Every structure is written in C-alpha cells, then in structure tokens.
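Memo to structure team: turn this sequence into structure tokens by end of day. - J.P.
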Amino acid sequence: MSTETSTETTEAPEAAENGAAATNGDLAQPTFSMELNQDQKDLQEWAHGFAESVLRPAAHEWDEREEFPWPVVEEAAKIGLYGFDGMAQLFADPTGLTLPLVNEEIFWGDAGLGMSIFGSTLAAVAILGQGTPEQIGEWIPRCFGTEGDLKISAFCSSEPDAGSDVSAMRTTAKYDEAKDEWVLNGQKAWATNGGIADVHVVVASVDRDLGSRGHAAFVIPIDTPGIEQGAKVKKHGIRASHTADVHLDDCRVPGANLLGGKEKLDERLARVREGKKSKSQAAMATFEASRPTVGAQALGIARAAYEYSLDYAKERVQFGRPIIENQAIAFTLARMKTEIDAARLLVWRASWMGRNQIPFENAEGSMSKLKAGEVAVWTTERAIQILGGNGYTREYPVERMHRDAKIYDIFEGTAEIQQLVIARAISGMKIS
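Reply from structure team:
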C-alpha cells in the first residue's frame, strides 16, 4: 500500500502552554492534573488523525520491506510532526504530558513507522540535556533538517559487549591537545538510524579507569572521515526502523564537538577522581530523560492491540454468540484495559516530574518504562490468543504488534535493569 498519497491532516495546533500554577515560594510549577486541557486534546486528536490516515495503511508494507520509510517521514514533516519546530512544540508543554500523549497516538498507528519518525529525538535529547547553548543551537536543527531536505540523527551508546553493562564500553575518545581534536575508535551496536543519520551522538570513554563515570558524548556528522555504517540489523520487530552497527576508526572531531565542552568534562572527572559523585553520566542522563516517553510508545502498541481484539471479540461468533460473552475472553479484555490505564498513570507521573525537574527519588522514570513495556508484551500476546489462529498470521495486525512490543522489554534498559534501578532507589543499597 503506497505511502505517497497526501494526508488531509491539518497543521499542528499550538503547543500547550497551560497548567494551573501552584506557587511554592517564588517558583511557579504546573499542577499535575488528570484532566487534559484543550490544547493537549487538540494535539492528541491531531496525532491520532495522522496515525489513522497515514501510518496504519502503510504499516504492513514497510514492516515487510524492512527499509527506512522516507515517504512516511516526509508526510510527518509536511504537517509539522517531524522536525525541530515539532520537537520544540512537544517539549514546550510545562505539564510534560504532550510528548507522551503524541507518542502514544503515533505508536498506536504503528511502532516501526513511529520509531522512524521519533528515532531522531533521542540524539536531540542528548544534545539538549548535555550540550552548551551554542551546541544546542547548532546541532539540534541538523538532527532533523528541513522540509524538502530532511535529515535524521542517531544516538550511539550500546556496543557488542556493552549493553546493560555500560561500564564495559570499549569505544574510546582520546584528546589531541595540539590540534584540539578528539580521536574516537570503537564499534557501536543496535543504533537506531546508525550509519544513515546526518548527525551521530556517540558516547565514548575518555577514562577507562573510571568506568561509566568516565564517559562523554560527542557529535559526529556523517561526512566525518572515520565513521561508517556496519552491518544492518535484521530485527524481530519495529522492522521499518533502521538499526545498524556504527564503526569508528581514528575518527577525528573538533574539540567543540564534545557535548558540554572540555572544561565541564575536566571538572566532572576531577570530582570523580577525588571520590565525589559525578552529577551525570553521558548515556544514563539521556536514558533517564527518555524513559517515560519510551513507556508511552509501548502504551500505544498495547492500546492498539487491546482495541483491535475488543472489536474482534464483539464481532467473532462461535457456538452461536460473540466470543466476548465468554467470561474468559471478557475478563482478559478487562485486565488488558486495567493494565494499560495503570501503566499510563505511571508514564504521566514520570513525564510531569521530568519536565518539572522533580528528582526521580524512587526511580519513577524506570517504573514507568518497566510497567509499560511489560504491559505491551502481555497485552499483545493476549490479543493473539483472543484472535486464535487468525492472530498468529500476518493477515491480522496483532502478530506485528506483538513483535514490535517485545523490544520495550529490552532497549533503553532491560526490564531487569529497570528493576535493579528501582531496587537501588527504594533501598539505598548497592544491589547487584
């Protein structure tokens, strides 16, 4: 099914700027509320319309092709969903809820296509969270390009031998003081948009003795000598999203491409060497900021599977009555709905806390990602069971949804790592 057809989806509504302010001394902070305001509802409806009219009709085709869906991303750019302005709009809401709202709707449409649209955001978040104002202004627009000249970006942290164990990272960055350049060597694995991105944000070790506390992040344009795509990964799910290894061979970047700058890095490393705590780690700082949004993506998949299986159960007749009239089916659907709503509450809470810089003292970000990922896997599996033999075929979308859901138990911190983070937070102990 072609994705070239134009959509009648309107331009994005204005970003939500509301949120009742609760005054705490001289600081005004948006109050957390379960009631969405009109701006948020408009954005939610806008994203849902695009997902329904553009993503769903194209989902099966691009899953089978396993190629980056440039025509779909171009459609997203036309309406302002993809691009620097669109990202700024989603991040502008002081309640923090617009970003997960829109992600849930887009991934309700299709996860592979959704990841292709939002995959560049992770690199942009890394630059936004760790870069100087000058770096933010220079590089974030380049992560997306412009309509008619689209670009994508990649965040490269994981390695063949360093996934959950970020301290095992082997990619190194050595400073050449005479030339004010950093020289990077190593291999990155499972990088979304890896090798085809215009901008790569690469996490590397500048001091192996300090483990993960000796990491820093660098911006590397694709035309830099020494960076190239390795093997493209053939995946179980989200197959429309491009995933590949990235090789770095004496890749030289200017000193200005170190996110945050060398002075800030030197100060942080000095604190660590003195036995003091590091304020942030390059990879973990990015993941902490993105986990609630990743949870929202999992929610979108779960909700799509639930809604499809609910409609199917109402229409499918066996033994002379719709199968939803059997308690086993009805109770399963009731649990699916309950689990999805419970996960959404955790995602919204963490999103609000993150946007308002409220510390995750009990690892609320990890809680939201853990719960939403597990709910997505469980819900899509139950959806297949409700559809029976039909659910196991590619003729019905729940099979694809189940394949897409599984990655949410794995990437940006496995379910086991999330539980470890939560356990350490609630106990104050160094659990391993």
